[in-house]
Specification:
Elements (H helix, E strand, L loop, with lengths): L9 H4 L2 H25 L9 H10 L9 H12 L7 H32 L5 H19 L2 H6 L6 H20 L7 H14 L10 H10 L7 H19 L4 H20 L4 H13 L3 H7 L13 H8 L16 H15 L6 E2 L2 E2 L3 H17 L1 H22 L14 H27 L8 H12 L1 H12 L6 H11 L6 E4 L6 H8 L8 E4 L6 H9 L10 H5 L4 E3 L2 E3 L1 H13 L5 E4 L4 H4 L6 E3 L3 E4 L7 E2 L1 H11 L20 H6 L1 H16 L3 H14 L4 H13 L3 H14 L4 H13 L3 H14 L4 H13 L3 H14 L4 H23 L2
Parallel strand pairs: 3-4, 3-7, 8-10
Antiparallel strand pairs: 1-2, 5-6, 7-9, 8-9
Length: about 850
């Protein structure tokens, strides 16, 4: 095994002209990625957690568990940076862009450092060029990868988490250059502090310690003993176990008591290393004191209310969420592996090419990564163990621990972003290793002169990631995407003053928090999240904080709340709270249910709800399917903004990419226009009904009602040719869509094109032989054409399967009587 042993002072040993090349690569990696992320970063708030994080940073609030206090504090600093061209949301988004670029810089540095271990120190400019090319190849593939790019352009914790992971890995490699130096011990102390501090960004950041642990353990000569190091790690292990694996506080206290006793014994034996590491770890965790201090001031966003030690502990342990049972899989483990594999293959995709489940567009970067794994394994086992263990924990380890179901509410690729980060390092190692082997084949062992072949391949490897950049650019450019703030504004703009609106989850709540707390829009409205309404702390906040929600319960009553069983099923705490709010309010303040709430949730009040746009208003009268036409039309047509969804002439804005969850959410716009169209069509306002159905189709072209009805609405509005063209276009895109085929037959029938209509109906019947409606239409159309025998054949075919269908039997009898009458007609004519 070829394993270089002396890497101390490595960069310092490289001649100046070579280190310039190394530094130039670092500058290019950082500035290019930063420029890309700034150019494509979200123009405002995004869906999911982004709106909550921006609002919390702006107001120094407390987001969902585990509270991410360090992110909030750093985000607050970024929100105060004087940048006149950027608003608050853009400044906090820029925090992710900066951290994303820093993570790319660290990835580049890590690849070069790992190549130092596998190739040895640079002896000439060719060595340096190979390492720089490998570093840039891996760094660029990471920079342009799917999940990492997404994390770097919106207000989220993952860009900061990945950057800190990369930095801590660099830190331990720096320590590994000279582990016997007393000064280097400071790096290990810093590592323990940063590990704890990183929890203030995201709890998962601490998992980077898995590979670092083995690297330090495998280093024989160091300033502290292996026993001291393991003892220091026990404290980290107790913390991780307590906040992830089990929820037994007494067991944790026991472990801590034993651990503290061990530290006291070691300190008295003049072995302070573990004590210092543990003290620095606790100091890093102390950033969470922000939560208890700030919660005591009752900020507008104060999730889990950690204003006492018990609540703070619950926030750190994420007790708001049910614990994971690793033994009880939420989905088949093979599915969970495939779930990860789908995300993994999509990360570095260079083109759209698939064979079964194999993504051919990712073969080259994945192949380079596998080469890198094999190359590092064969040349330097210690760094291989560190890097591969980290990759394994971040991929297979998280697959097992996270235990995702096959019905997640959103894509979960971001949880695996560290795995994609560390695999990109292997891509760089593979590129460097490939260039090293090529150099050996072309020019012999380590020549000082650069071969044109090696230079050409190095250039190709550095440029390969730009295919990934091109492939991902449109889907990752959010610079003109304003759907989220527009949706939030639209939810609130049509509500009456001092309204209360019930919302369902992240995407109809966090955007509203953003628009209220950051942009100051409609702060008179109280947003009540039904998911949080299952918790006592949130019910109290709704009752006590302005704008107050009408709740008459006292603290004792709230503390005793629990789900109850009724004849109709379970009533959750939130259901009881909604009843209490409506009963206490007595229509003194307007109360609304957002249209995003599942119908089963508001079913007890369904006949008292009147639709006004993106919300149903609770009204003091009972009637089914109520719509306030005038108000809804004013809201939807005049007050709502459709920026990044529709152009000024009500056409779909295809210049902005909308992911599937956004497409799903804006279907609520389509639903509103469809409801308007239904009402107006029933009132014979055909032109306006057609207009609104066309808008619904523009917003959601795959939504069924517009696809089914728009052609008929054209026909009713006196535009049958347009209706025919619409359905023909639909059929051209989906030739086997029998519903559209049937609608087109109806248009043909209205136009008197009976042969064309019958041809379509026969096509449908060849497949859908049990479709009664189509059979009846075919019979009627055949009779119009005078094709009685064909009409009877349709009937007889039906009766051969349904001989007791009395309606069809009666129709057959009437046709036969008419035929007999017609045949007798000439003889009986006077």
């Amino acid at each position: 095994m070829n394993e270089p042993t002396d890497t101390s002072g490595l960069i310092a040993q490289v001649p100046e002209y070579k280190s310039k090349l190394f530094r130039g690569g670092a500058i290019v990696a950082f500035l290019l990625s930063l420029s890309l992320y700034i150019k494509t970063m979200a123009a405002s708030s995004s869906f999911w957690d982004s709106g909550e994080f921006i609002a919390a940073a702006k107001t120094l609030g407390i987001p969902h568990s585990p509270g991410t206090p360090l992110y909030v504090l750093v985000g607050r600093v970024f929100s105060l940076i004087p940048a006149w061209s950027l608003d608050v949301a853009e400044r906090i988004n820029a925090l992710s862009a900066f951290c994303g670029a820093a993570g790319i810089l660290f990835a580049y540095l890590l690849i070069v450092r790992f190549l130092d271990f596998t190739m040895g120190k640079s002896e000439n400019s060719v060595d340096t060029l190979i390492k720089v090319a490998g570093g840039l190849c891996g760094a660029f593939f990471l920079a342009f990868s799917d999940t990492y790019w997404n994390n770097a352009i919106e207000a989220e914790v993952y860009a900061m988490s990945n950057a800190l992971m990369g930095f801590m890995t660099l830190l331990v490699l720096k320590w590994g250059e000279n582990p016997t130096s007393e000064k280097s011990t400071f790096l290990i102390y810093s590592l323990f502090y940063l590990l704890a501090l990183s929890v203030g960004f995201h709890l998962g950041t601490i998992l980077v310690f898995s590979g670092i642990f083995f690297f330090i353990l495998m280093t024989r000569e160091k300033t502290f003993s292996t026993f001291e190091f393991i003892v220091a790690c026990l404290g980290v292990g107790i913390f991780i176990a307590d906040v992830t694996i089990y929820r037994n506080g007494q067991l944790t206290l026991f472990f801590l008591a034993v651990y503290v006793a061990m530290l006291v014994w070691m300190y008295s034996a003049k072995s302070p290393f573990a004590v210092v590491c543990s003290a620095l770890f606790v100091l890093g965790l102390s950033v969470h004191l922000y939560l208890i201090i700030r919660s005591g001031h009752n900020p507008s966003i104060d999730e889990a209310d950690p204003e006492n030690w018990r609540n703070l502990y619950a926030v750190l342990r994420r007790e708001q969420y049910p614990p994971t049972n690793l033994l009880k899989r939420k989905a088949d483990f093979i599915f969970q592996l495939q779930h990860f594999n789908g995300y993994f293959q999509a990360q570095y995709q260079m083109a759209s090419a698939y064979v079964s489940q194999l993504n051919l567009g990712s073969v080259l970067p994945l192949g380079l990564g596998i080469w890198g794994i094999v190359d590092q394994f064969s040349k330097h086992r210690k760094t291989f163990v560190m890097l591969f263990v980290t990759l394994l924990v971040m991929s297979l380890g998280l697959i097992i621990f996270l235990n995702f179901s096959d019905n997640e509410v959103r894509e979960r690729d971001y949880f695996y972003s560290p795995a994609f980060y560390y695999f990109a390092l292997y891509i760089g190692l593979g590129a460097g290793g490939l260039l090293g082997e090529l150099r050996s084949v072309v020019s012999g062992a380590r020549p000082a002169r650069l071969s044109p072949v090696v230079l050409g391949v190095a250039l190709v490897l550095v440029l390969l990631p730009f295919f990934t950049l091109k492939y991902h650019y449109f889907s990752h450019d959010r610079s003109n995407n304003y759907v989220c703030p527009a949706y939030a504004r639209n939810m609130l703009v049509g509500l009456d003053k001092d309204a209360v609106i019930f919302t369902n989850g992240d995407n109809d709540t966090f955007p509203l928090w953003y628009i209220q707390e950051v942009e100051g829009f409609r702060k008179d409205v109280r947003v009540v999240n039904l998911s949080l309404l299952n918790t006592g702390w949130y019910i109290k906040q709704c009752r006590d904080l302005e704008p107050k929600v009408p709740i008459s319960w006292n603290d004792d009553q709230i503390a005793r709340l629990a789900p109850v069983v009724t004849k109709e099923g379970w009533l959750l705490v939130r259901d009881l709270a909604v009843q209490e709010i409506l009963k206490t309010n007595q229509f003194q303040r307007p109360v609304y249910f957002a249209v995003t709430i599942p119908p089963a949730t508001y079913s007890p009040y369904r006949d008292y709800l009147e639709m006004e746009g993106l919300a149903y208003r609770v009204v003091p009268r009972k009637e089914k399917n109520m719509i306030n036409l005038a108000r809804m039309e004013d809201n939807v047509v005049n007050k709502f903004s459709y920026e990044s969804v529709l152009t000024d002439d009500w056409k779909r804005d295809n210049s902005v990419y909308l992911p599937s969850y956004t497409e799903h959410l804006i279907q609520n716009y389509s639903a509103a226009f469809i409801q308007l169209a239904y009402v107006l069509h029933n009132d014979s306002s055909y032109d306006k009904a057609l207009k609104y159905m066309k808008v619904a189709h523009e917003i959601s072209p795959h939504m069924n009602p517009p696809r089914q009805l728009l052609g008929l609405y054209y026909m009713d509005a006196g535009q049958p040719e347009e209706g025919m063209k619409f359905y023909r276009d639909m059929l051209a895109a989906a030739p086997n869509d029998y519903d559209i085929m049937y609608r087109l037959s109806v248009v043909y029938d209205e136009l008197g094109r009976y042969e064309d209509a019958l041809g379509l109906l026969e096509t449908i019947l060849r497949t859908e032989i049990d479709n009664r409606e189509v059979m009846q239409a075919a019979v009627s159309t055949a009779l119009r054409l005078g094709q009685v025998s064909k009409a009877m054949s349709y009937i007889n075919n039906w009766l051969s399967r349904y001989p007791n269908d009395q309606t069809v039997l009666d129709a057959k009898r009437l046709i036969e009587e008419q035929v007999q009458k017609n045949s007798a007609g000439p003889d009986s004519t006077p």
